[in-house]
Amino acid sequence: MIVMGKVLSPPRTLLVARVSVLAALSVVGSFIHLPSPVPSVAFDSAPGFFAALYFGPVEGFCVLGLGHLATAVVSGFPLGILHFPIAVGLAVAGAVVGVINRRWSFIPAIVTGVVINTALVVVAIPVLGLAATLSFTPFLFLAAAVNAAVATLVYLALRGRL
User: Fold this and answer.
1) pTM listed for this prediction
2) pLDDT per position in the chain (162 positions), as tens?
3) Does domain 10-158 fall into CATH 1.10.1760.20?
């Protein structure tokens, strides 16, 4: 919101409502699994990437972090406690996407988000081992790219309309 040339932050209730609705969409997406050796690969990141692109780093941080935790719960925590650092990493990715999009453009923002999402695969090495983690990486990259593509298409369709 802009008042007299100053950018004001949205009211907290609006922020909570945005995060809640988009986190709920992440939960719905967490039930749509993509083919992968690890069952926690799903459409949970698309609402988070969209939130980061459209609303900014705070919403992206919250929705991507909550979205991954929802998928971990739905999948039965296949990586155990390691889902928590992954959720933090994805939350940071959401914030980074939001910052880069505001500063430059959505293309470098979404590419960075996919790279961070895919790089978080290293957290799985203690559970899966190096060989299995390396074989899982293409599946994770593909899932991150599909989530990012869906989010980008929705962002481009709605940009300036909400």
Assistant:
1) 0.85
2) 555 556 566 678 888 888 889 999 988 988 887 777 776 677 889 999 999 999 999 999 999 998 888 888 887 887 778 888 888 999 999 999 999 999 999 999 999 999 999 998 888 888 778 888 888 888 889 989 999 999 999 999 998 776
3) yes
Q: Take residue 3 and report the two structure tokens written for it.
A: 């008042």
Asked if residue 126 lies in contact with residue 65, where contact means CB atoms within 8 angstroms, the answer is no
Rounded Cα–Cα distance for residues 152 and 132 (Å): 30
User: Helix, strand, coil proportions of the chain in percent (round to 5)?
Assistant: 75, 5, 20
Question: Residue 54 corresponds to which tokens in the numbers above?
Answer: 């459209």
Using only the alpha carbons of the chain, give its radius of gyration.
16
